[in-house]
Amino acid sequence: MSKKQQYTLEYPVRCSPTILYEFLANPSGLQEWFADKVDERDGIYYFSWNGSEDEAEVMEQEEEKFIRFHWLHAPKDEFFEFAIEKSEVTNQTILVIKDFADKREVKDQSRLWDHQVKDLFHRLGN
After folding, report:
1. Model's pTM, two decimal places?
2. Which residues constitute the domain of residue 118?
3. Which phi and psi (to 5°) does residue 30 adopt?
4. d(CA 125, CA 7)
5. Which residues form the START-like domain (predicted)?
6. What are the pLDDT digits (tens) for 54-110?
7. Closest CA relative to residue 111, chosen from 2, 7, 26
8. How far from 43 is each of 24, 70, 77, CA to CA, in Å?
9. Residue 93's domain is classified under what CATH number?
10. Helix %, strand %, coil % for the chain, to 5?
């Protein structure tokens, strides 16, 4: 099996880091756009989509800055991360997503994230 590579996506968003972080780090916020159902117990997030389920643990987080998840089934060095940055020039909030995929799947995975983020922006009123 080929080793997955990390890729990064950036999305400018019109909302405060505080509000955005609620949608990235809390089960109720994630359930609005990322998965059909999200529960959290003891640092493990339980995600479900159309009847299938997956589990991820929080590796690291800093309030209003970032949260990094690790899928329990994935290799230890792989993760997905939501980070919130501010543009120094425009002072705009930027959502930065880091994830891993096989090289030939990066484009498809990026499209999937684009679709998910579109749902997030709809919920945020962007």
Report:
1. 0.92
2. 5-124
3. -65, -35
4. 27
5. 1-125
6. 999 999 999 999 999 999 999 999 999 999 999 888 889 999 999 999 999 999 999
7. 7
8. 14, 11, 18
9. 3.30.530.20
10. 30, 40, 30
Separation CA 96–CA 86 (nearest Å):
10
CA-CA-CA-CA dihedral for 40, 46, 50, 52, to nearest 10: -160
114, 108 contact by CB (below 8 A): no
Count of domains for the chain? 1
Beta carbons of 58 and 45 less than 8 angstroms apart: yes
Q: Which helix (H) or strand (E) holds 105?
A: none
* Whether 65 contacts 73, CB under 8 Å: no
Q: Are the CB atoms for 56 and 71 separated by under 8 Å?
A: yes
